[in-house]
Amino acid sequence: MVTRKNNRALDELRSVKFTRSFTKYAAGSVLVEFGNTKVIVTASIEDRVPRFMIDSGKGWLTAEYSLLPGSTETRVSRDRGTLISGRTQEIQRLIGRSLRAAVDLTKIGERTITIDADVIQADGGTRTASICGGFLALHDALKGVGIIEPVAAVSVGVVNGEVMLDVDYSEDSTADADANIIMTESGKILEFQVTSEKAPVDRENLLKVLDMGEKGIQEIIELQKQALGNF
Known about the structure:
Low-confidence stretches: none
CATH superfamily: GHMP Kinase, N-terminal domain
CATH class: Alpha Beta
Structural class: alpha+beta
Largest sheet: 5 strands, mixed
CATH topology: Ribosomal Protein S5, domain 2
Shape: globular
């Protein structure tokens, strides 16, 4: 049996906290904390849509993500202009895809919602934390209009053969395999990414990863709903 920091059980989340209205000017803003991972997520609304959606009667949602300098032990350079890393692009698309599933874009008119996720302290699970906080920022920006159902995400790792929920950096960096799972409250899967880092994942552990991820996501959604006053 693997011993985890703070004696966490294998299926136990880190301490999760959502602080709404964290900044003054954004339509929706949340500080999301998963253990030592901290991300400021904001939602902004503009009265325009991309060219391919003009006269469609629908809105659009996009996302930008940044790992800020000072968020890791070694300084990370800022992504600037067209100099955006492949990792950043991948995460931005993931956040956007995930949160588009949370809102009926026909209900918001021809407007664009931009979700900005800025990681101020990274200790694993930054993309999943961004999605969890992003849902709350989106809900606040729209005042609930067009929201279909909550969406949340969590990481799961296989470390020394043990399946672990919500891995931090020390666990993720030594994992045999890791996964990111995004689901709706009703249990629909939006994304299920599993990557073998050191060893292949057998079918039995793959199903454990999915089940453990779903358990964690339902717990996170309950915390989201509590933060919103049981939406």
